[in-house]
Amino acid sequence: MILTEMSSNDFWSFSVTLYSKHGVADSCLALQNEHGLDVNLMLFCIWYGKYHGELSSSQLDELLDFSLLWATNVVKPLRQARRWIKQNRDDCEIPAERLESFRERVKKLELEAEQLQQNRLQQLAHAGSERHDDGNTVASERNLDRYLQCLGVEKTESVVRLLGVITDSL
Question: How is the chain classified by DSSP, letter by letter?
């Protein structure tokens, strides 16, 4: 049911398509794990730039505030539980198939939480009614740069390379 509901979300469809391209998922996860970036916010900066232009400072602040709150209280705890179960399955003394079934349900909840986050990001930015399809990668890159600045993430060679893998896949 949630996949049908979210399929009308242009941002979610864009994210699923981009994330499935060669090297994008690995780059997103490296930026998340090594530099503390929120994958959904990175993808949003790219999507919004491509189809709507540059985010205003107030929009970015509102998106950051919501995402930090949501990730801290919903997404990260689910991700942590899923990873903990995977890494400690032998110590749990719970039948393997029951534990794996439970881990898969947690994984689905984590994905649903990310879908809800993306839907809310799109709503907060008031995106969806006005759309241009001119492939504005300059606006996407500016949105990403401002996001990195807000987090205090330096644009090292590694960060630039990983972001390049993502933006080159547009």
Answer: -HHHHHTT-HHHHHHHHHHTSTTHHHHHHHHHHHH---HHHHHHHHHHHHHT-PPPHHHHHHHHHHHHHHIIIIIHHHHHHHHHHHHTGGGS-S-HHHHHHHHHHHHHHHHHHHHHHHHHHHHHTT-SSS---S--HHHHHHHHHHHHHHHT----HHHHHHHHHHHTT-
First to last CA, the chain: 28
Structural contact between residues 153 and 37, judged by C-beta atoms closer than 8 angstroms: yes
Structure tokens at 91: 């110590």
CA distance 125 to 127: 5
**Token pair for 60:** 């970015």
Q: Is 120 left (phi over 0), alpha (psi -120 to 50) or beta?
A: alpha
pLDDT tens per residue, range 40-51: 999 999 999 999
Those residues of the chain that have pLDDT short of 70 are 1-9, 127-135
Reported pTM: 0.89
Radius of gyration, CA atoms only, the chain: 17
Backbone angles phi, psi at 131, to 5 degrees: -145, 135
Calpha distance 82→48 (Å, rounded): 30
